[in-house]
Amino acid sequence: MTRPRLIVTRRWPAEVERMLAERFDVRLNADDHPFTRDEMRTALASCDALLATVSDRIDADVLGTAPSAKLIANYGVGYSHIDIDAARARGITVTNTPDVLTDCTADLAITLMLMVARRAGEGEREVRSGSWTGWRPTHMIGTRMSGKTLGLIGMGRIARAVAMRAQHGFGMKIVFFNRSRVAAETLAGLDARQCDSVEEVLADADFVSLHCPGGAATRHLINRERLALMGPDAFLINTARGEVVDEAALVDALRNRTIAGAGLDVFEAEPKVSEGLLALENVVLLPHLGSATRETRVGMGMRVLDNVDAFFAGRTPPDRVV
Questions:
Q1: Given 160, 226, 241, 303, the catalytic residue
Q2: Does residue 270 have an active-site annotation?
Q3: Catalytic: 288?
Q4: What is the DSSP letter of 222?
């Protein structure tokens, strides 16, 4: 029996690649280069399933008119990089990997809060440059995180995990906005106030952490006007999607001290980071590390494998998006 042909667009953890190779006819990306649009078109036209990542832009043009692939198994939770309507129109199933990366991404959001509030990035750069002259009472004064108000935009699994850490670990007050009302039982273990608008959260919070999906509906959700509502002592944290924030407006807000600082794990034109952000000290910049632990990245791969197994066995994949 001919095994389904899979094309994997980037390198995955070795144990996951090994299991894929044992079960399927797999073409791996040995040198881990990002696929060009032409390579992506060729892959979709020559495989049964494409195993893609959040860095792969798969729009209607890339999908073509009659792709061979009938499954796009995404290595990640977000899928705004895939044109879902175009995939549906071509009869392509799309899956993702929810649940697996919740804790590690929540941990990283807390890391960014601490780093930007306590100026950890600036301090580390000063030590490494050899310019630190020793302890003094007025040196690199930051902001205490404990006891402050955390505002969450979006209240899905990751946001709730961040809220639990912030409230029970740092004694923070929690306010949030979600597009649909969140049931009380979903908030079990949290003392959190549900706001009626993004603006209400921004006006009340000392730290604002973004946990909404990407895509056209949320592009530049955090814009110049909304940044102005945050206040000069507030911090913006983004571990969601880069396009949720108007990066040019954020640069201006940081430069002019409209807000105190930002911690970013994602960027609008990723992997390109604007020169404006790179030039500023009051922003922490990380290279999309939200799920970057051995446990999580292997777990994500195994979740993809579960979806691929189910699809080619004729079952509905457990994490089917479309």
A1: 241
A2: yes
A3: yes
A4: B
